[in-house]
Amino acid sequence: MAINKRKKQTKSSAETNENTSANTSSEKSDDSARPDTSNLSWPKLDTLPVIDDPALHARCIPVLETLKEQELGLGEFVWAINWGNEASRTNKLMQTARKDFRGEYLIPTLHNVRIPPRTKAKGDRAEGAKESIDAFALSLVGNQFREEMRGFERHYEGLKPETLTEDNFMDSIGFNRIQSLVYTWCPTLFMMLYMLSTCYYRRERWESNGSNADFFITMIICCMAYQLSSYNNAMQRLLGYYFHAKHVPKAVIGLLAKMNLSMSYSSITSTLANLSKSILQAMREAVAKFPVIFVHDNIRIKQAVRSQRHNNQTVTDNGTAMTVIIMPESARPAWEDPEAVRALRNHIEAQRALGRPLRVTFSDLQHPNRQARVLTHKLFHLFDILCAIPGFKDIKILSSSLLQRPSGFHELKEFITRQFMLGTRPFDESSYVGSIMVIQDFLRQVGLDYGDPLVRLTLERIIPWIGDELTVRRLEMLQWQRQEESNGYDRLDPFIFIFGWFHTLMCLASSMFENHRGTKAGVGFAHSVLVLGRIGFSMNMRQQRPDYHTVKEFLMHEFEARVRGLWLWATGTTTLDELKTWIEDPDRTVEDIITVGKRIQRERVSRQAVSLYEMEMDDSPEDADPVFLSTLIQTRDMELFWDLRHAVKHGLVGHMEDLIPELLMFFTGGRNGNYAKQMYRILQVLKHESTDAIRHSIREHCWLVNMMGKKNTLYPIDQRQEINNKGIRVSSKLVS
């Protein structure tokens, strides 16, 4: 724990501006370069060898006699010449003497005066001035270091607890920025610590492997700043929160605090408690101010055995983890339009009362414009795989804009999702009772369970609720069972339940692999798993489902390999080198490549290819090849998975909507009835049970999240909940 702390003087903004304008010339840039330590060693000051020159001695004696006659000591004489006497400042002779003294003889003289050199003469060494010169040097260096630390303190601001609630607080305490401040304001101290903490051998080793001691030295200076004032606490507070998050024992944190590497345990816990309250308040304010999305999922937490009592066994508890996602202000017209929402609800209820509920029609499934968009979009996957072949990226013709995928009718722009994790509750949401408890507790935690917020929720707002198949099915059934209730809240009118796309991808991959598993000796996926030595696949995936990422990688690699082979087939080549030569032909045009791609799609990678070959089999049964037909079907299905995953990753939500009819048919044919119902339900909501604004906002905000703000870092909302669940399980495991 830091001791002997001194508080920084808090200045008003006016004083700060005044001082800033007055001291502009003394300010330094925070982007200073690192002090040069490439040839750093202990300073070797130049000195002169001791000589034995009688002639020089004879010339010095008269000077000393003259000084004695003038009643002037040598020390007073040197002091007066070197600016000790104002009357001697402008004299030309004095100036020449000062310049000569500061030149060649200053440092050697200090060396000799500090420790007189030994001679061949016997007897004790002559008395020097080591103590006084060392004290002066120490004072000089200490003042230099203290001035550097003062400059560092002025710019190394402390981290206040309320700063943690700001979205960009990490930008102000990044290690690179702190290290830059050290380089800027403590260059001499940095080099001195570098010399003291390293040696030539270690520096030579670091230069060979690109390492250095900068992190260690920066931490030392941060610890020194914290020792000077507890307000200089950015690194200590951040590390303290990290240690607490990793469940470092209290005693260890106390030891680290005494070493100035962390805040005290009590400070950390009290700050985090206040932080939790402030985040809860910020969450409730955001829920009241902006349109929101609710997400929850079942979570299983394993509680390890802590002793050998018969009633204390290892158990796995079921609970519910909940998350709130804040939509931007631009989404408000879609979700908080009372008149439009009321008219839509009345229309839906009237249709249900007449026994003619709104249903998905054939035109919703087989719309020609949708089919044309999907077919065109899928064609560019073939070009993407061709351009991604190693050695093909530098081929000029492949960079043509004609081979780049055009924009779809609805693509997400770059954004960063804002989320709040709620408290985990011991509710089993797989039951109807548990689902009711989840809804009630969810509204209580976000502050929508009483008073005006509850009335406004019931009459003016609609909240999309995201979950997996079981979650959505339970909530929709509750909503259906409560349609005879007297008020909108009891009927669950404010909620639209939406199935998550991550579980769509999981079911699609699992069902696809199981449908085309085949045998190890056949042409199915089981044969490829055996040949390629893939691991992680069970004999029956319906009983023991493998990891989703294992199946995903297999399907992605298998489809990419098949498309490469189809490019060889379509161009009449046998190797990738021959294919590269074919593309680089001077007479080759972009239109030639597009024509080949369309042929591959038409004859090998599409529903059309399967239909055409089935027609050929009917016309010529004797030439039928069931193995080839099975290969076409496998490639067609894998393209669907590739296409959906690409759309999810890049935020092509319009194309995701276009794929819903194909997913509906796939799940229906693959005997995945529950997931087929969810696809039907999504299609029904988009086509018949939502306004145009809600339909657009569902695609824009309710399907994907982006936690990094980049173009290709999107993933489904229910996958975000699974990631949150993982963090909860890891934290619970560390605690237990």
TrEMBL record:
Biased composition range(s): Basic residues: 1-10
The organism's superkingdom is given as Eukaryota
The record's section on InterPro entries has: DUF6589
Q: Where is the composition biased (Polar residues)?
A: 11-26
What is one Pfam family matched by this protein?
DUF6589
Region ranges (Disordered): 1-44
DUF6589 domain residues: 363-730
Q: What is this protein called?
A: DUF6589 domain-containing protein
Please tell me the species this chain comes from.
Answer: Rhizoctonia solani 123E
